[in-house]
């Protein structure tokens, strides 16, 4: 049995969730694909796939084997690319993960530029805020907001996440505009809770250079950034969304900034990837491109909204659309931030 070919067949079956589609993609008879998987399971001594009439499901052993196969095949592609004629252009699969707010509003609309520069890179884009084990899950690079906790990873700062305290005009008409931080106890907030921990994130303000968290009464809590923003626009309470997401509503007057003298604590936005003696060219060009994209937007560099061409200016939450040039795979299983 050709183990390398068996790995390629197995990963293609999993990716397409079909023996028939895998056979078509590999230009093989369906019977050969089935036989390859059976021989691979016999060789390994484990069941990799649970087959039903409607779909295929990975067994726990199958899931672990799949992740390792993906990494091995990606490493092989990368090695071959080093010696392939014309290998100056990076190629192969690149798996990245990021918060949906950044993915939908920043990265997805700009994908055409990346695809034009690097047509031989296959992007696999996951969007979520849950912890990702880059090594175990075979993820090449993640974009994250906040301080890096894992010292075994490399973080390159590419931007600054600046929040804004605001509320809808309708809410402020009913409850008045807070003038001091003490006034917040007479107001209602929309709470945001972490998908990772379930903890409600209190509003925070910079007071005399120090971060100050304030708990505000609330009747609604969500764990999705667009839902959070929508609740604020609909008048359910004060919110502290990212300024780059709130900007269209601030400009239209649907939201109004309050307490501007006490801004939320800014947080770094970083591209994070594993330590490596030889950084993959795919990861390197992706990080360089993302950093360049963020640099073009002063709003995401801690500055005021002076170059708004980098962001949508009149779009309600959830309406961002873009054409995705294949091969691009969007993993929407964790769209929660």
From TrEMBL:
A single GO molecular function term of this UniProt record: DNA-binding transcription factor activity
Entry superkingdom: Bacteria
Entries under Gene3D superfamilies matching the protein: 3.40.190.290, Winged helix-like DNA-binding domain superfamily/Winged helix DNA-binding domain
Any GO BP annotation: DNA-templated transcription
Family statement drawn from the similarity comment of this UniProt entry: Belongs to the LysR transcriptional regulatory family.
Organism of this sequence: Pararobbsia alpina
InterPro entries (alphabetical): LysR-type_TF_proteobact-type, LysR_HTH_N, LysR_subst-bd, WH-like_DNA-bd_sf, WH_DNA-bd_sf
SUPFAM superfamilies given in the database record: Periplasmic binding protein-like II, Winged helix' DNA-binding domain
Full protein name: HTH-type transcriptional regulator DmlR
HTH lysR-type domain segment(s): 1-59
Alphabetical UniProt keywords: DNA-binding, Transcription, Transcription regulation
């Amino acid at each position: 049995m050709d183990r390398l070919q068996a790995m390629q067949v197995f990963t293609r079956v999993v990716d397409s969730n079909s023996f028939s589609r895998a056979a078509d993609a590999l230009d093989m008879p369906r019977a050969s694909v089935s036989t390859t998987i059976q021989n691979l399971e016999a060789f390994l001594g484990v069941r990799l796939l649970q087959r039903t009439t409607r779909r295929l499901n990975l067994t726990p052993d199958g899931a672990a084997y799949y992740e390792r196969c993906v990494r091995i095949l990606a490493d092989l592609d990368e090695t071959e690319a080093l010696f392939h004629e014309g290998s100056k252009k990076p190629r192969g699969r690149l798996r990245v993960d990021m918060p949906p707010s950044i993915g939908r509003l920043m990265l997805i609309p700009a994908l055409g530029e990346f695809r034009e520069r690097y047509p031989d890179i296959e992007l696999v884009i996951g969007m979520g805020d849950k912890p990702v084990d880059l090594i175990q899950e075979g993820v090449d690079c993640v974009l994250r907001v906040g301080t890096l906790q894992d010292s075994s990873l490399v973080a390159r700062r590419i931007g600054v996440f600046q929040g804004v305290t605001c509320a809808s005009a309708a809410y402020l008409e009913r409850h008045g505009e807070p003038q001091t931080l003490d006034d917040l106890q007479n107001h209602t907030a929309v709470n945001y809770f972490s998908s990772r921990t379930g903890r409600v994130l209190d509003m925070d303000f910079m007071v005399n250079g120090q971060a100050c968290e304030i708990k505000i009464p609330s009747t609604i809590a969500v764990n999705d950034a667009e839902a959070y923003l929508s609740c604020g626009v609909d008048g359910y309470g004060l919110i502290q969304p990212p300024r780059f997401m709130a900007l269209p509503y601030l400009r239209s007057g649907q939201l109004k900034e309050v307490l501007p003298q006490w801004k939320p604590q800014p947080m770094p936005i970083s591209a994070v990837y594993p330590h490596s003696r030889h950084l993959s060219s795919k990861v390197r060009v992706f990080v360089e491109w993302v950093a360049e994209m963020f640099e073009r937007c002063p709003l995401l560099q801690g500055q005021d909204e002076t170059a708004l061409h980098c962001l949508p200016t009149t779009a309600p939450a959830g309406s961002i659309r873009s054409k995705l040039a294949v091969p691009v795979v969007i993993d929407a299983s964790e769209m929660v931030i």
